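Hi support team,

I'm filing this because I wasn't sure whether my run with nicotinamide-adenine-dinucleotide finished correctly. The job status page said complete, but I'd like someone to confirm that the output block is well-formed before I use it downstream. Pasting the exact inputs I used:
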Amino acid sequence: MAAPCRLISRLAVVSGGGSGIGRAVCQRFASEGASVVVADRNEESAHKTLELLSRNYRGQEHVALEVDVSLKESVGRLVNAIQSHYFQPPSICVSAAGITQDEFLLKMEEEDFDRVIQVNLKGTFLLTQAVSSALVAAGISKGSIITVGSIVGKVGNVGQINYSASKAGVEGLTRTAAKELSKYGIRCNCILPGFIASPMTENLPEKVMSKVSPLILMGRMGKPAEVADVCAFLASDDSQYITGVSIEVAGGLFIG
Ligand code: NAD
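And here is everything the job wrote out:
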């Protein structure tokens, strides 16, 4: 079956596009016809994603740009650079940049709590705000903002007091953004991945995985491409009547 081509002529920005889920989202969007801005703090990995896109999806113009999503000036520079390059703001925005700094509540340092909130939660706020402001200013009345929370934001996880708080915040932020932005034609939805095989999870201790695995109904970790499938649906008109929701992409984790 031919891959769908639902994103022709669309411009997308993907933070965290240099790795894991973000990279898979960039590839999926490009495969559906979008021009993709790969945005990442790690310039080298962003350029690796760009190479993949430029090799496999030549019909559109893709770029890689450096950004630290936790800094307002950096996010502002990113959105300005996109507008200078493409003469329009991106109408699809995926906030996939994220970090972990795991520790038990009783031992967590304040800096480690703050850093995770700054990147995962404030970073999502800054990018969502900058992109939606640019869309409204340009009078573009169609947009899809996709944020990346986590199943952990709903159910909690031992050793992730900062991460689970940041991801619960991302869900609340997304619902509020949906309420405020619907009048501008901008939809906002949140993806809640479960355990996805990526650089973020590759060093999870065996002890943790042996406890989690039996709780996954599908019996395995997810693939970044399986999260990207859902992002492509949310970015496309196939979801044009969907806003303010969270979608679990977790193989049935924790429902049993
Ligand atoms: P990853 O570590 O493979 O990729 C994260 C990317 O974010 C990296 O390229 C990194 O350079 C970038 N990044 C980090 N800080 C940044 C910053 N300040 N500014 C810009 N870019 C920054 O992780 P992943 O597994 O692909 O995770 C992607 C998103 O999905 C994250 O938000 C993560 O919390 C979320 N998530 C992942 C899983 C999982 O099991 N892998 C589960 C639930 C949610």
